[in-house]
Amino acid sequence: MKNTIENYLNLVVNNLINLDNQGDLANEFVSVSTAEAEKKGFFARDFGMDQWDWPQGVGIFGLSQNLEKNREYIVNWAKTEINKGLPTKNINTICPLLSLVDFKEFEQLSLEWMSWIDENFPRTYESGLQHITSGVDKFSLRLNEGQIWIDTLFMTVLFIGKMGMKYDKQKWIDDSEYQFLLHTKYLVDRETGLFYHGWDFTNNSNFGGNFWCRGNSWFTMAVPLYLRYLEDRLPESIVKYLKNLYINQVRALVKYRGEDKLWHTIINDSSSYTETSGSSGIIAGIYMGIQQGLLGAEEFESFCKESVDALIDRIDEKGNVLGVSAGTAISNNKEDYKNIITAPMAYGQAMMICALTEHLNYHKQKGQ
């Protein structure tokens, strides 16, 4: 089994590095307005690795799980994108720095962007990180005024925490703690333990109250990663708070897993398709939690194995990860999530890499 998983992992990694930027999808949307294309998830910048934004940032994070093998690619990718001219600073374009902060070559860039976050980042009511993203091109912005999204914890807050640890800046560590507290305050559903996609301070609303699969997976991964990066510097109360939120979410996710052992893109709506990137992130996050002692191995080992088998069925012979929902704007309408196209995406490849890597890490830890 180990060799089989490793073979699939190598296929997915090689495909990520060579992923087609848009494939045949560009032809499908050539006569469609930008607004209509984006409503279905077609954001041209999201495909392949030839950009600097969140899909590529998650891709680099996935590749960094085997840094010895992928270091040269990561460094060359970053230098190429920097030479092309970096995009506007925003929640999503910070994501590549989550991995690049560990490279000496990009130390000054990381400090420059962290200083901007500290001093100039737009904030919502209660000082949340406003979920500003790239606009129609990499030099424009969507302000999403008054909005916080669950994605932010993975895309930006983990970077803030890592920078605080690396440079011993308590102010940055404190901000990362506060963002976890604020985002979970407004995004957790106390009845289920799942997380809403976002919160709008202007209208005091969770939009349509949708439990989006990939959004939930950002939290499932972010908590064990955050505790791994910062636990020794966090107050015991914060650690306990995050652990309980994480455990409650995982237990809810267990209840809502679909018949095919993956999760629906609207987690509690079985009429929505099961989605591969979010399911991969959930399994990766659960494996992280087991290895860090947040969850019991006996309770979750067979559960994770079932989902890993289902995830492998989503990998084709070329290493494409299938069933990955494209870029998903927040919406009040549940049907908008159901209508998002699926296609091989850099982040889908990367989240699969994380799931398979954590599966192997867990069994290595057990001595198997």
UniProtKB/TrEMBL annotation:
It holds the Pfam family Glyco_hydro_88. Transmembrane segments: none annotated. SUPFAM superfamilies: Six-hairpin glycosidases. It comes from the Bacteria. InterPro entries: 6-hairpin_glycosidase_sf (IPR008928), 6hp_glycosidase-like_sf (IPR012341), Glyco_hydro_88 (IPR010905), PolySaccharide_Degr_Enz (IPR052043). Keywords: Hydrolase. One of its GO terms (molecular function) is hydrolase activity. The keyword Hydrolase applies. This is Glycosyl hydrolase family 88. It comes from Clostridium saccharoperbutylacetonicum N1-4(HMT). The lineage of its organism: Bacteria, Bacillati, Bacillota, Clostridia, Eubacteriales.
